[in-house]
Design brief:
With 459 residues, this protein is of the alpha/beta class. It has 2 domains: 57-137 and 197-272, Rossmann fold; 139-195 and 294-441, Fe-only Hydrogenase (Larger Subunit), Chain L, domain 3. It has helices at residues 18-29, 62-69, 73-83, 103-109, 114-128, 137-156, 173-181, 185-188, 197-212, 230-235, 256-265, 301-314, 352-363, 397-409, 419-427, 435-441, and strands at 93-98, 132-135, 167-168, 220-226, 241-242, 247-248, 252-255, 324-325, 331-338, 341-350, 371-375. A hairpin with a 4-residue loop joins β5 and β6 (247-248). α6 (137-156) crosses α12. It is globular and about 70 Å long. Its main location: nucleus. Keywords: Nucleus, Phosphoprotein. It comes from Gymnorhina tibicen (Australian magpie). Residues 20-32 have a biased composition (Polar residues).
């Protein structure tokens, strides 16, 4: 989304001319002419400015810009081409993880059911050379369960710890980026420590799956297909990198739109691709039908945490949640009353303007909410800038409406009912309260001193 006045001073994002942008990118991507020619040379880069995301150039250093630039289709193809050569010592196991909010885009765009879209997308990626294609829903299961437990703990400590409440959701990297680079520790101390589904999936692929396959993590190249460009920045966080294996949890993030570009460059129609069942992390099992979590356009942290907290803290079984729209449709609240008293007050704040208002109230001490599901994109994750955009960079509202219908029709699965997750807590993570759970499924967030060096890059 566009970032307007997003720092304490005026936002430094300025309109740059094409020559300046091209020079900067050429400098970053220069390889002294030594790059090998291969079958993917004709593929074009996406013409998308990183400033279209919440993490605009005010929040990104020159070094980060260079590293993000490497997360494009060419890096993906570089691995594919290495795997075709005879030097097996350089081969990588290529694993691709699909975000649930990307699948409705492919389904709506190509007039498929969401299950057909998942299988055909899997078939296309494997035709390129991917060895495994996973669904990240299981990672969201872990993230939601850990967020639920943390909220209950924070609520119980609210009278002893100043920053226990409110708790802010941690799954949106645009929001996290803004909080760490622009806001103070007054805000970051309230962010839930549970890692996002993307990064938990990174831990599952480079940790659990690598061990199952008897592979070193650095022998796996892990790609995530996501609806949003900020996910590229999230993959670069230092706390999501294992120095021992010289390996990041997620090596490359491609947006849904970038995958469609690859299809177009290769003249492949989604409807002509052979359906292939999506892989599972467990032995030779395959995934069944696509499932999702509660929530209209995202992984539904608000609904899951609200219902869990109502049960755990007040013994109340909440079946349906009623949203009350406040200033706009992207700022809504949900409350729980017991004996005439409001005991839980949650909110969903989507879009930068609502985030600004929320932070202002927090700093003024006028914040009434116990939990807020914060998402940078208006309308939530389905409306990520990496998909459902028109050629002039505006939301494709007709396509987005179709995507919402597709997403709403996907069956909901409660994370508590996933038997694989429960088994992994015991067998892989050494119990729900173990140090390994903290090390694997959690991270920390704090204010960062931002360098003045920044860059607005064109993909």
């Amino acid at each position: 989304m566009k970032c307007e006045n997003c720092t304490k001073k005026e936002c430094s994002k300025k309109q740059k001319n094409d020559d300046t942008q091209s020079t900067s990118v050429d400098a970053l991507s220069s390889n002294d002419g030594s790059e090998e020619k291969n079958e993917f040379d004709t593929l074009a880069n996406a013409k998308i400015l990183l400033s279209d995301c919440l993490a605009c150039d005010s929040c990104m250093t020159l070094e980060e810009g260079a590293r993000v630039f490497q997360q494009n289709q060419k890096e993906f193809f570089h691995i594919l081409n290495l795997n075709k050569k005879c030097d097996t010592s350089k081969h990588k196991v290529l694993a691709v993880s699909l975000c649930p909010q990307s699948l409705p885009y492919f389904a709506a765009k190509f007039d498929l059911s969401v299950n057909e879209a998942a299988k055909r997308l899997c078939g296309f990626l494997k035709s390129l050379g991917a060895h495994y294609v996973f669904d990240t829903t299981i990672a969201a299961d872990f993230s939601i369960l850990e967020s639920q437990r943390e909220f209950v703990q924070r609520y119980q400590r609210r009278n002893q710890e100043e920053h226990a409440l409110p708790m802010f959701a941690s799954a949106c990297p645009g929001w996290i980026r803004y909080a760490e680079r622009v806001l103070t520790n007054l805000v970051t101390s309230h962010i839930c420590t549970a890692k996002s589904p993307q990064q938990i999936m990174g831990s599952l692929v480079k940790g659990y799956f690598a061990r199952q396959q008897n592979l070193s993590p650095d022998k796996i190249f892990h790609v995530v297909v996501a609806p949003c460009y900020d996910k590229k920045l999230e993959a670069l966080r230092e706390d999501f990198y294992t120095a021992l294996y010289n390996s990041a949890e997620v090596d490359c993030v491609l947006t849904s739109g970038e995958i469609v570009q690859i299809m177009e460059q290769k003249n492949v129609s989604m409807k002509d691709v052979t359906e292939v069942a999506v892989d599972s992390l467990f032995d030779d099992l395959k995934e069944g039908d696509v499932v999702r979590h509660d929530g209209k356009r995202s992984d539904g942290y608000l609904e899951h945490i609200f219902k869990h907290a109502a049960k755990e803290l007040f013994g109340m079984d909440v079946k349906e949640i009623t949203y009350k729209a406040l200033k706009n449709k992207d700022f809504q609240e949900v409350t729980l009353e017991k004996d005439g008293e409001t005991v839980l007050r949650f909110a969903a704040a989507y879009g930068f303007r609502n985030i600004q208002n929320m932070v202002l109230k927090l700093k003024k001490g006028k914040f009434l909410y116990h939990f807020v599901e914060v998402l940078a994109c208006p309308g939530g994750c389905l409306n990520g800038k990496g998909q459902a955009q028109t050629e002039d960079g505006k939301p494709d509202r007709a396509l987005l409406a179709q995507m919402e219908e597709v997403y709403a029709a996907i069956p909901v699965r409660l994370p508590e009912t996933n038997l694989h997750v429960q088994k992994m807590y015991q067998d892989w993570l050494e119990g729900m309260d173990s140090k390994k759970v903290q090390d694997t499924l959690h991270t920390t967030y704090s204010a960062v001193n931002q360098s003045t060096s920044s860059l607005d890059i064109k993909w």
